[in-house]
Write a structure and sequence with these properties.
elongated; 70% helix; 125 residues; mainly alpha
């Protein structure tokens, strides 16, 4: 059960990182267009589900992760009334989301490697 919860938590975090990277890409494309709107990811729901999953209540954590995945993890809000971020900030957001995705992917690969080692009793294929 704990392993399933770990995989679901990492999947949720991967989806959130992917969404952040996509939104940053949209904002970079629109950065040079005067009057264009930009997008913001509301990640509060996914973050609260991940925090609950990290807590002691595994059943509630699993249910929160399932609910977060069903609702699309986050809302992408279109903004035109606020101050637009600069191009440097947008590129930094994109790079940060990409690095987070890469780190989560590597940690999930290590997790599956340890599971394979536990099942087979050896590290090789």
């Amino acid at each position: 059960m704990a392993s399933d919860l770990t995989v679901e938590a990492v999947r949720t975090a991967l989806d959130l990182s992917r969404t952040r990277a996509e939104v940053a890409g949209w904002n970079i494309v629109n950065a040079s267009i005067p009057g264009a709107t930009f997008f913001v990811v509301d990640q509060a729901g996914a973050e609260s589900a991940l925090a609950m999953a990290a807590g002691s209540d595994r059943v509630a954590g699993g249910q929160a992760l399932a609910a977060a995945r069903e609702t699309g993890l986050s809302l992408i809000e279109e903004r035109s009334d606020a101050v637009r971020p600069g191009l440097d900030e947008l590129v930094a957001d994109s790079v940060a989301a990409g690095l987070e995705y890469q780190l989560l992917s590597e940690s999930l690969g290590r997790h599956f490697g340890l599971m394979r080692l536990a099942v087979t009793g050896r590290g090789g294929a």
